[in-house]
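Worked problem 6 (solution included).
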Amino acid sequence: QFLMANKLDTAMWISRLFTVYCSALFVLPLLGLHEAASFYQRALLANALTSALRLHQRLPHFQLSRAFLAQALLEDSCHYLLYSLIFVNSYPVTMSIFPVLLFSLLHAATYTKKVLDARSSNSLPFLRNILEKLSANQQNILKFIACNEIFLMPATVFMLFSGQGSLLQPFIYYRFLTLRYSSRRNPYCRTLFTELRIVVEHLIMKPSCPVFVRRLCLSSISFISRLAPTVA
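Solution. The predicted structure is:
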């Protein structure tokens, strides 16, 4: 009754569980490397479906207008719909599957807990214990996801020069990264950029750091700071 009363949430729960399943079979290629590549695509397509459903839930009345598009781009679900489209037809990159896997795992765990509560307050204690541990480590998981989002930017550039990526991919991914940086709901990408800057500046200001390395890092920090979007 609970699942039927929340059909859209249930559909997203199923698609997230499928995303976790496909992502796990890509990261751990138990069925062979050839099958792993197909699971990579399936995971991203399932994530795109979940993101589209979530976006429909947040903005139910679609309009073909600039204002609607601007509103949609503020939603995290729109960001990850774009993310899935960026990587779904690219060369499989293990790094790119972790944000999809972990977001799906966190959201699926939250809804699984609701399903268990609807069934009985004491049902499946072992599963509840796993879900509680996931919830307790949510902040660390979100930071890890943000770290993946940041370091995928140079990875897309490397893929371009190694012949495994397209010319447009780094530019589209940069747009995705600016959206994540400006996210209203998830500040972790912005926080990680700040923390990485503090760590790098601390390291390069040590007397043992070569001058040319210090200058290179400072100019890189200045360049990246100029690319960062203004956050209200």
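Discussion: The mean pLDDT is 89.
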